[in-house]
Design goal:
The structure is a single chain. The chain has six helices and 17 strands. It is α+β, with helices and mostly antiparallel strands and 272 residues long. It folds into two domains: 5-103, Roll (Diaminopimelate Epimerase, Chain A, domain 1); 115-270, Diaminopimelate Epimerase, Chain A, domain 1 (Roll), CATH 3.10.310.10. Strand 1 (5-9) and strand 2 form a beta hairpin. The longest helix is centred in the C-terminal third of the chain and has 13 residues, at 215-227. 47% of the residues are buried. The model has no long low-confidence stretch (mean pLDDT 97).
Amino acid sequence: MTHVERYTAFSDDPAGGNPAGVVRDAGGLDDGTMLKIAAEVGYSETAFVTRDLGDGRFRVRYFSPLAEIPFCGHATVATAVALGPGDYIFTTNAGDVPVTVGDDGRATLTSVAPTIDELPAGTLAALLTALRWEADDLDPALPPQVAYAGAYHPIIAARSRERLSRLDYRFDALKELMEARGWTTVQLVYRDGPDSFDVRDPFPVGGVVEDPATGAAAAALGGYLRALRLVPVDATLHLRQGDDLGRPSRLTVSLVPGEPGVRVSGAAVPLS
């Protein structure tokens, strides 16, 4: 029988963070079985370690209840903490992701090199319609873009925290648009200081209304801010997520000069 461990990531409190399933012995499981297990677990993602490659390298795959995801930050943090303190490299569908776990149960992943791209006007209009947002709701200082750091996420910035707090999107319409564009979540952000952000992530393509903490989108946001020179080259950013869901999550994003990837750090603790 397959053993599923349950952790919550980006919190040191079991009542916060984003729960993830972790299967460390998934070598004998096929795709359909992994998808079935992820659906039964019911979290936004479950990570499956399908092969131990030696020297701290592991092949890892991620499944939501509805589909495989190329890369998942919170399940990466959960899996690394489950493995224990040390340095690891996770070989994912998006590429190799180094992860370091300290004795304090806090993990730091380094994403693949991020990219950003324009969000065409027609696509942006369709996205705003699905979100039930208006153009006037957008923060002009943070232009809409599609960012990638292992998975694709449109980044849409709200002009006010009040706008961010009202999440009432058209589930089927947003899911259809995201599937057509290959997006994993939509990263909705509100900047309330030079290095401080509130974020929310609709995730209908995974069968989840909203993700309480999204490490892959956090990495994409770091790449976006760096590429547009909206933060210093050596910035450390603090993201609050999950508060609106009653599952507070805290993510730290670090940009290191000369390092192509983006570092995302957070705690993880086991769930009963």
